[in-house]
Amino acid sequence: MAESEEESRRAASKEVSRELKTLINGDDLDSLKQLQYLILGRLQDSNAVMSHFNEYSENCFAEVAGDFSRNTRLLKSMTLDLDYIFQKLRSMKAKILATYPDAFPDESTIEALDRRPDLEMPQ
């Protein structure tokens, strides 16, 4: 009995697969297969290009990483130096203003004293 069930299942599956083959055009399947191979080739080419670009970028970054870190340290040190300088200038200005109140003109006086042309504004 088990053999007859097995044979009937095989026969049924063969019938179903034969019916499915009649529903699908073989030329369409071949066309889809060719398109899939074309897309696969393009994706592999793109992957190779991206891998090459990543290696190139990694090498370029390795070349300039030392310069970046050195220049970053230099900029931080310059910032600290400038902060110190401006702090000293503010304290000196405060001492001068305490001693000589008229030493620095206010905003209205600055505009009257400054007669230079404004190079940013078109004439």
From TrEMBL:
Pfam families: KxDL (PF10241). One of its GO terms (biological process) is lysosome localization. InterPro entries: KXD1-like, KxDL_dom. GO terms for cellular component: BORC complex. It comes from the Eukaryota. Residues 20-104 form the KxDL domain. Belongs to the KXD1 family. PANTHER family: KXDL MOTIF-CONTAINING PROTEIN 1. This is KxDL domain-containing protein.
